[in-house]
Amino acid sequence: MKRCSTSLPDYQINTSIVPKQGWYTFCFIRGSEDNALLFFNPDASVVPKLKGSQCTFAIKEELLPKQVREGLSQYPLFYQDGNGPFIISKQEFCTVSGLFEKLTSHMSTAYIYKDQLLINLTLQLIHFVIKHFVKLKKAE
């Protein structure tokens, strides 16, 4: 299986707009040893101090399916009000099977939902970030 590049450009979180009311904000972080996908709900009062390369992206709350919005309001995803982050090692970050195994192992914990629709959203977010970084790397 071909592995993705773990060489990511540097991004900074603009703490003046994260979290922003009405948006769900996600941040992918690459540290020296581990990677993490963090989630901020619109009402989060704490933004963690982050180290490493970062890519932040947001989804407007009203654009998410109703079931997803309801789930996001009830459960933390990867980071919410001090819970998390959900760590993805370099090995897991680079293989689809590793991502599925990690998600499966956390399905019964507070860090991920049991709802299949929300798990699907999570996988799509991870896929978006990997695709985004690979595209940026090729453009350099």
What would you say this structure looks like, in words?
The longest helix is centred in the C-terminal third of the chain and has 24 residues. Strands 3-1-2-4 form a four-stranded antiparallel sheet. By secondary structure, it is of the alpha+beta class. It is globular. Helix content is 34%, strand content 19%. It has one domain. The N terminus and C terminus are likely disordered. The two termini are 24 Å apart.
Give a concise summary:
It contains four helices and four strands, in the order βββαβααα. It has helices spanning 66-74, 90-93, 96-105, 116-139; strands at residues 23-30, 34-40, 53-60, 86-89. It has a four-stranded antiparallel sheet with strand order 3-1-2-4.
Alpha-carbon distance between the two ends? 24 Å
- What Rg, in angstroms, do the CA atoms define? 14 Å
Q: Main sheet?
A: 4 strands, antiparallel
- Please write the string of helix (H) and strand (E) elements: EEEHEHHH
Q: What percent strand?
A: 15-25%
Query: What strand line-up does the widest sheet have?
Result: 3-1-2-4
> Please, what is the average pLDDT?
55
